[in-house]
Specification:
single chain, four-stranded antiparallel sheet
């Protein structure tokens, strides 16, 4: 179940992905298989070669790409999620979703 994002944020993410740009969107997320995980970041790009190369640079495998719709993406969770958000300078998403956990 996803929650914590506005429709406009999702629209902007989809537009960027569709243009072949790397785009990131984080939202709250609950899944019974991932106890203790509260957020997921979707790192997407419609240019599959670019997405694959980007993923490899972070040690992500091509087979982890969700490519069942027009917005191919990796789902990032846990320590790797925060590592990538920091590396990609996604300050707004870090402040919004991770600062609360430190307090």
């Amino acid at each position: 179940m996803a929650f914590g994002i506005a429709r406009e944020e999702l629209k902007k993410w989809k537009e960027q992905v569709s243009k072949g740009k790397m785009a990131f969107i984080t939202h709250y997320w609950i899944h019974p298989r991932f106890e203790g995980i509260k957020t997921v970041t979707k790192a997407g790009c419609s240019d599959l070669e670019k997405l694959i190369a980007w993923g490899h640079s972070y040690g992500l495998k091509e087979e982890w790409i969700h490519n069942r719709d027009q917005y191919p993406h990796f789902d990032l969770i846990g320590d790797k999620q925060l590592e990538i958000l920091i590396s990609e300078n996604q300050v707004d998403q870090i402040e919004r979703f991770f600062q609360k956990e430190k307090n």
